[in-house]
Known about the structure:
single chain; 5 helices; elongated
Amino acid sequence: MDADTxxxxxxKPVVFLLCLxxxxxxxxxxYALQSGDMSAASARALGANPVExxxxxxxxxxxRFLLLTLAITPSxxxxxxxxxxxxxxxxxxxxxxxxxxxxQGRPK
Length: 108
C-alpha cells in the first residue's frame, strides 16, 4: 500500500469527522439547554437567542468550508495555468467526439 492510498484511506475520514465538530458543539449546546444545564460552556455559547446563534454559526462554517474547497481546487489541477485548449482536447477524447471539420476557402 503506497502513501497516497494510505492518505486517502485514513486521512479522509478523519477530515470528514473534524468537519462535523461545529455541529457536535451546537448539538451539545442544544442538549444542555433542553436538560436545563445553563452552566455548560456549550449552552452559554448559544446565548440568549439560540436559534439565531445556530443559524449564524452554521452559515459561517458553511462559508468557511466553501472557501476552503474553492481554495484547494486550483491546487489539484496538474497543469498551471490551465490551458482551455488542452482541456477541450481531453474532453473530446473522453467523449469520443471528433473535432469539427475545417472549412476550405473563403466564407460566404
